[in-house]
Write a structure and sequence with these properties.
Length: 195
């Protein structure tokens, strides 16, 4: 919480020694001006200290966003277009909080963190114990999995975005690149759109 200039002025004046000379100086405009300028600088420093708390959080950083991105190797190599401020913050937060994993919920969460709503289908090879109407998948299908996504995912501009950002962006290239980069190497990843 920022402390106002007047509050700092009151605190500085309270630190002054007591006595006839000092009591008279408290009514001198030049003397008061010295303390007002000091109080103003202290209030500015206090406000910047509050700003630093926002900058220390990857969800709310603005001035230090470039430094955060450099520390976490962002922008992601899968991003080939200009990202909005909100997309950059979301990418940073996802990278900072990512613990890794290989489960279905992990990959769904990764997709959600970059703006995609998906489901995942796993395949298993067919055995004689399976239902008659189950597809006949061979042994290699047990290492395949399918990401089901809408045909196009559109990201719209937000009110708190910058004026030089596009009003909308779309495409699934980022989803494919990100999941291919994170998938277990021994698996085959298939994408199904709009189904």
């Amino acid at each position: 919480m920022a402390i106002k200039t007047q509050q700092y002025l009151t605190m500085l004046m309270a630190l002054m020694p007591r006595g006839l000379l000092w009591d008279d100086l408290q009514h001198d405009p030049d003397f008061i001006g010295l303390f007002e300028s000091t109080a103003e600088e202290l209030a500015i420093l206090h406000a910047r200290e509050d700003d630093l708390l926002d900058e220390a959080d990857p969800r709310t950083t603005y001035e230090m966003l470039n430094e955060w991105e450099a520390a976490y190797a962002l922008p992601d190599p899968c991003v080939d277009d200009v990202q909005t401020l909100q997309q950059r913050l979301a990418s940073l937060y996802a990278k900072v909080t990512n613990k890794g994993g290989q489960s279905i919920p992990y990959f769904i969460a990764i997709a959600e963190s970059i703006g995609y709503q998906v489901t995942i289908t796993e395949f298993s090879r067919w055995t004689v114990a399976d239902r008659v109407n189950k597809p006949l998948y061979g042994q290699s299908w047990q290492f395949a999995w399918q990401v089901n996504a809408p045909e196009e995912t559109i990201s719209y501009w937000r009110v708190n975005g910058r004026v030089d950002e596009p009003l909308a962006s779309w495409g699934n290239k980022r989803l494919e690149c990100t999941l291919h980069r994170l998938k277990p190497d021994h698996t085959t990843l298939i994408f199904s759109y709009g189904g």
